[in-house]
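Incident log, structure service

09:12 report received: a user says their structure output differs between two submissions of the same chain.
09:20 pulled the input from the user's history:
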Amino acid sequence: ISEYGIPQISTGDLLRAAVSSGSELGQKAKAAMDAGQLVSDEIVLGMIEERLKEDDAQKGFILDGFPRNLSQAASLDELLAKTGQPLQGALLIDVDFDVLMKRLTGRLSCKNCGAVFNRYTSPPKVENTCDSCGHDELYHRADDNEETIGNRLAVYEENTAPLIGYYDEKGLLKRVNGVGEMEDILNAIKAELATI
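09:34 re-ran on a clean worker, output below:
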């Protein structure tokens, strides 16, 4: 994130890049993502470990979408201890199920610059045209449908929700209400990050 001079490392982006490459790893990741399942810990942790070795992550980083379960959290703790980069905080952005469903089923992305819109809450000014770069082809991800999202949320409740207690017990958990104006949410996130 440019404001902090450190990279935002999104497991989703790392996985999509692997899928786009058509590699064996990418094919395995695609099968799991299309079914709304989690990609194996071994695959995800390996990708994270490789990414953290890059020069831009040496002064710090923000992990987005990782860890997603207690096993990954324990493995991440081991990895970060080994590299001398201990975790300084975990941010929970609280959003109700119904709001999440609308956000995800309405998501549209620009194929050219990656800008994200939502057909329900923040549509582009001109239909199917990016406000940022003017590209006239927005797309809706195949895995942004109610069935797959429902599966993802069920997996979240079973696997990811326990991380709230895990990081709270370690004194690392920061909470932000993820509903409201984007600028207000961003300011709340910045305020929590400032306490780390």
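09:41 both user submissions now match this output. Likely a transient worker issue. Closing.
09:42 reviewer note: The first strand starts at residue 8 and ends at 10. The beta strands are 8-10, 62-64, 90-94, 107-110, 116-118, 138-139, 173-177.
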